[in-house]
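Schema walk-through. Below, the input block comes first and the output block second. Nothing else is stored per chain. Lengths vary across the set, and this one has 211 residues.
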Amino acid sequence: MPDRHGLIATLRRARVVPVIRTASAAHAATAVTWLRDAGFTIFEITLTVPDAPGLIRTLAAEPGLVVGAGTVPDRAAAEACLAAGARFLVTPWIDAAVAEAARAAGACAMLGAMTPTEVRAALAAGADVVKIFPAGSVGGPAHVKALRAVFPDTAFCPTGGVDAANAPHYLAAGAAFVGIGGSLVDEARIAAGDKAAIQRAARSALGLLEA
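--- output ---
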């Protein structure tokens, strides 16, 4: 699949994209700070976070960071995130309008799918990357491997139930990279100020770079 914006290669090298999904903007900002300090430079800020575009704008202004928007519901939200500096847009479903907005801005579109029919539809809608969600409940790495057999040139990003322990299996099955929320963005630990626990999880996930 053509990498028209050069971002897929960057995401492949990163192997792990932290998915920031919290109930408060303050917790999201804290999660990003702690994960950045541990070594992450790519972040997906979901639009379920209050004032997500504001956080995207702040992070996009920082040198060396690549920031995207997740759970993008429609074209208007997509354009707001792109205007704030998002370099990739993610939806857990297929939305051609979101993909069109990304393409117009030179950004990467990641559309969600699970079945071969949905993968084909996502690609037809303009997906640069196909997000497999929720990966953990639809067959895990074996499901990704089966899809790769049918779509060998497609970049897949499984998310949902992915962690540092099973991520290597997804990558071995053919995933281009993975999205990890959960252990990296444990809101209870963030609320408790447990930076050490979050950074332990971060170091574990970053260890995949050495695999």
